[in-house]
Amino acid sequence: MATQFLIRTSYKAVRLAAANHLSRTPVRVMCTAKGIPTNEEQATGLELRALLAQKKGKDPYSIFRPKEYAGTSEDPHIVPSIGDKRLVGCLCEEDNTAIVWFWLHEGNPERCPSCGSHYKLIHQELPH
């Protein structure tokens, strides 16, 4: 009888300790009183600059899909560069496995030696 009493009291003590421990567990929340912060509220540094530039419609890090050009002398493919020349690769045909590489210099549009598509180098400053 004494052993049953000892088992019952120890069981109740363990349950009571567990209940007290659970009630004292700190609650962690994923937001503040204002709610979950937006990307603009928690972004810093270059990420914030990129988000602000995207709101203005600019594409400082070439994140958006590039605009498609016809590739003619009147509407050449635009190639941005921070220098005065750049190495360009042209996949002349859709199913072609070989890339035609050539140097593109700033100034007038230049043609691909294989297919004749026109490319023009545009000087672009770094965003940072």
Automatic annotation (TrEMBL):
The reply on keyword Transit peptide is yes
The record ties this protein, via CDD domains, to: Cyt_c_Oxidase_Vb
What subcellular locations does the record give? Mitochondrion inner membrane
Tell me the keywords, alphabetical order: Acetylation, Membrane, Metal-binding, Mitochondrion, Mitochondrion inner membrane, Transit peptide, Zinc
- PROSITE patterns according to UniProt: COX5B_1, COX5B_2
Q: Example GO biological process term?
A: mitochondrial electron transport, cytochrome c to oxygen
State where Zn(2+) binds: C90, C92, C112, C115
| Modification sites for N6-acetyllysine | K67, K85, K120
| GO cellular component terms listed in the entry, alphabetical order | mitochondrial inner membrane; respiratory chain complex IV
GO terms assigned for molecular function: metal ion binding
Q: What is this protein called?
A: Cytochrome c oxidase subunit 5B, mitochondrial
Starting at the broadest rank, the lineage of the source organism is: Eukaryota, Metazoa, Chordata, Craniata, Vertebrata
Give the gene name. COX5B
